[in-house]
Structure to design on (91 residues):
């Protein structure tokens, strides 16, 4: 039970510049709220930077910052980006 692993409670989230991956929904909501985007998401007004699909807490895959601009990416595009392959749940 040392204190040296530095990993407990670890969220690599919201360091400002890093892409946020695999966040829990509560964290997502928190971050979005902090960014003033939660209301827009709830209103269905947030879209994936890549495919333009509407984002919800469920479909949000990543939040990233580039040149000071916040971008959002959906789960599917994130998977594609990471090389997890094609979306398998296509009708
Ligand atoms: Zn997308």
């Amino acid at each position: 039970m040392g204190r040296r692993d530095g990993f407990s409670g670890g969220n690599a989230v919201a360091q400002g510049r890093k892409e946020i991956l695999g966040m829990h929904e509560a964290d997502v909501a928190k971050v979005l709220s902090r960014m003033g985007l939660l209301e827009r998401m709830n209103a269905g007004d947030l879209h994936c930077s890549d495919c333009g699909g509407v984002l919800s807490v469920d479909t949000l895959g990543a939040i990233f910052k580039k040149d000071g601009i916040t971008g959002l990416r959906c789960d599917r595009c994130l998977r594609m980006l990471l090389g997890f392959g094609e979306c398998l749940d296509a009708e």
Q: What stands out?
A: Residues 9 and 48 are 29 Å apart (CA to CA).
